[in-house]
Amino acid sequence: MKSILIPTDFSATSRNASLYAINMATAIGIPKLIFYHFYETKLVFTPSGKLDEVATIEPSRAKSEEDLQAFVDSIGTISDKIEVELYQGSSSVNEGIFEVSKITTPDLIIMGITGGGILKETFLGTHTLSVAKQGNIPVLIIPNKATFNHYGNVTILSDFKDVEKYTPVEKMKTILDHGKTDLTILHLLKSNEQVDDSHPEKLKLEQLFKSYSPKFKYKKSEHFTDDIIDFVSENNIDIITIFPKYHGLIETLFNSHTKKLAFHSQVPLLVLHN
Questions:
Q1: Which residues pair with 181 in a beta bridge?
Q2: Model pLDDT for residues 200-236, shown as the tens digit of each residue
Q3: Rounded to an integer, what distance in angstroms lies between the CA atom of residue 74 and that of residue 84?
Q4: Inter-axis angle of helices 93-104 and 118-134, nearest 10
C-alpha cells in the first residue's frame, strides 16, 4: 500500500479513525496519508439576485482548510517519512470522497463509525456504510474505541459460495503482505449444514490463499452478528474482512444484521469488492 485516504468531520469518531490510520501507516511503512474534509456553504447572492460563487464558496473553503490543518496537527506527531496531503470539498460527502479518490488513487479508505443508539447509527454511520457499499477501494471501518496495535490476526468471512467470482484476491494480498499475518477463514454453519475439508469451495479458498496457510474455522450460528463478535473476542482477531456480493450470506453486510456488526464490533471491519 502506498496511501490511505481518511475522510473526517472533526468528530471524536473520525479523530480516532485518523489516529488509527497514522499508527497503522507508521507501523507498516505506508508513505502517504490523505485527509479529506467536506464543508457546507451558505449561499450568497449579489444585489441583482445572482449567486455570488466566490462569496459563497471561498469563506467556507478557507475555514475548512484552516480547520483541517489544525485537526491534523492536533492528532499527534506524524513521522517525517509520511507525506500528508489535505483536501476539501463542497460536494456531497460521498461524491466528495469519490472525487478525491479519483485524484489521489488511495489503496485504502479508513473511516470511523460510532456505535450506540439508533440516532447515532443513522446519522454518523450512513456515509461510512455507503462508501463501503458503493466504492471499489477497500474500506476499513474503525469502531470508536478501536486502537491500532498490529494486524497479526485477520479473519475472512465466507459463505462458501462462488468464492472464485467474489474473492478480491490481489486486494486481500495487498493487505496481508504488510504484516506478519495469521489468516483465518470463518464459515458460519446453518442449522443442518455439514462441512468437511473436502468441500470444493473450501479447497478453492485454500488454493487462492495458499501462501498464507489459512486456517479454517466453522461455527454453528443462529445469531449472525453476535456469533461473529463472540468468535472475534475468543480468538483475538484484529480485523474482520467481508467480500460483498449480490446474493448469499455475505450480502447481509448492508442489511440490519451486519450494520449491527459494523456498529458494535470492537475491531475494524474491512470491506473489499472484487
A1: none
A2: 989 999 999 999 999 999 887 777 778 888 888 889 8
A3: 14
A4: 40
Record the pTM.
Answer: 0.84
- C-alpha cell at position 209: 490463499
May I ask the CATH architecture of the domain 153-271?
3-Layer(aba) Sandwich (3.40)
H/E stretch holding 59: helix 53-75
Take residue 63 and report the three cell numbers written for it: 475555514
Q: Tens digits of per-residue pLDDT, 27-61?
A: 889 999 999 988 765 544 556 656 445 445 565 67
Interatomic CA distance for residues 57 and 35, integer angstroms: 20
Which pLDDT score is estimated for 223?
74
Identical fold for domains 3-143 and 153-271, yes or no, is: yes
CB 82 within 8 A of CB 25: yes
Give percent above pLDDT 90 in the chain.
28
Task: Write out the E strands in the chain.
Answer: 3-8, 32-38, 83-89, 108-113, 139-143, 153-157, 182-189, 215-220, 239-242, 269-271
CATH code for the structural domain at 3-143: 3.40.50.620
Helix ranges, 105-199 (H): 118-134, 163-166, 169-176
Rounded Cα–Cα distance for residues 241 and 222 (Å): 20
The residues pairing with 241 across neighbouring beta strands, listed in sequence order, are 156, 270
pLDDT of residue 120: 43
Beta bridge partners of 182: 153
